[in-house]
Design brief:
This protein is of the alpha/beta class. It folds into two domains: 108 residues, Cobalt-precorrin-4 Transmethylase, domain 1 (3-Layer(aba) Sandwich); 117 residues, 2-Layer Sandwich (Methyltransferase, Cobalt-precorrin-4 Transmethylase, Domain 2), CATH 3.30.950. The chain contains seven helices and ten strands. It has a five-stranded parallel beta sheet with strand order 3-2-4-1-5, with helices on both faces. Strands 6-7-10-8-9 form a five-stranded mixed beta sheet, sandwiched between helices. The longest helix has 13 residues.
C-alpha cells in the first residue's frame, strides 16, 4: 500500500527544499499543501496529472480523509508543510489520526524559516562568548503557551531568541522582553517572508522596533529575532585557531 509522506517545504525559496523532498514531489500522485504558507512555485515540481489540494480551507478531518482516499487508491500522497514541520507544524495531530486509520507515513525534514532568516542576514545564533543557546518560542494567542514558557521568563536567559507567530503583537512582545531583562538597546531583526522574493528586513533595537514594524504594516508571516548575536560584539572560536590543538590538527609554531 502507498504511504503519506510529510515533506518540509523549506522557508519559501523553492530551491531550499531538500533534494529528497524534491524527488517526492516529482513522483507524487496527490499533494496536500499548506496554501497560506507554502510558496506555490514548489508545485511546479509536480507532474501535470498530480492532484493538488490547498489545505488552507480544509479542517483536520477533511485533510485526513483526502490522505486516506489517496492511499486506498494506492497513490503516493504528499503533505507539503512550510519550513520544517517539527516547529509549529501541527504534525502530531495528523500522525495520530493516520495511526487510527492504520495508514503508514514517512517524514522528510525541511529547512526551517528561522534558519533561512539567519542565512538571509548572514548571522550566527551561537556566537562564541556571546550566546551558545537559541530559544525558539511564540507569544500566546489563540493557541495558549504554558506560563513557565512565557516570553518574560525566557528573556531572563539573555540568549538568542527567535519568536514565531507573534509579529501582530509586536508591542506586547517588546513589553514582555523588556520586563524579562533584555535592555532597550538589544538588537532586533524582523524578517518578513524570509527567502521569498518579497522578503523584507527591519533591523533595529527593542526600544524602536514596534514603531517601525507598525509603520511597515507587517502583521503576519514574519520572524522576530532578538539578542546580542545581532550586535557588533563577537569573538573568534577555537575551532580554527592555529594555537588550538585537537585530534585533527597540531599547534602551529611561528617558526
Amino acid at each position: 500500500m502507498a504511504k503519506v509522506h510529510f515533506v518540509g517545504a523549506g522557508p519559501g525559496d523553492p530551491e531550499l527544499i531538500t533534494f529528497k523532498g524534491y524527488q517526492l514531489l516529482k513522483s507524487a500522485d496527490v499533494v496536500i499543501y499548506a496554501g497560506s504558507l507554502v510558496n506555490p512555485e514548489l508545485l511546479n515540481y509536480c507532474t501535470e496529472d498530480c492532484e493538488i489540494f490547498n489545505s488552507a480551507s480544509m479542517d483536520l478531518t477533511e485533510i485526513i480523509d483526502e490522505m486516506e482516499r489517496g492511499v486506498r487508491e494506492n497513490k503516493e500522497v504528499i503533505r507539503l508543510q512550510t519550513g520544517d514541520f517539527s516547529i509549529y507544524g501541527s504534525i502530531r495531530e495528523q500522525i495520530e489520526e493516520l495511526k487510527k486509520r492504520n495508514i503508514d507515513f514517512t517524514c522528510t525534514s525541511g529547512v526551517s524559516s528561522f534558519l533561512g532568516a539567519a542565512s538571509s542576514l548572514g548571522v550566527e545564533y551561537t556566537v562564541p562568548e556571546i550566546s551558545q543557546s537559541v530559544i525558539i518560542t511564540r507569544m500566546a494567542g489563540r493557541t495558549p503557551v504554558p506560563d513557565k514558557e512565557s516570553l518574560r521568563s525566557f528573556a531572563q536567559h539573555q540568549t538568542s531568541m527567535v519568536i514565531f507567530l507573534s509579529v501582530q503583537g509586536i508591542q506586547q512582545v517588546v513589553t514582555e522582553l523588556l520586563a524579562g531583562g533584555y535592555q532597550p538597546t538589544t538588537p532586533v531583526a524582523v524578517i518578513y517572508k524570509a527567502t521569498w522574493p518579497e522578503e523584507k528586513k527591519i533591523i533595529s533595537t527593542l526600544e524602536k522596533i514596534a514603531e517601525q514594524i507598525e509603520a511597515a504594516d507587517i502583521t503576519k508571516t514574519a520572524l522576530i529575532m532578538v539578542g546580542e548575536f545581532l550586535g557588533d560584539e563577537f569573538y573568534y572560536s577555537k575551532l580554527y585557531d592555529a594555537s588550538f590543538k585537537h585530534e585533527y590538527r597540531d599547534v602551529k609554531s611561528d617558526d
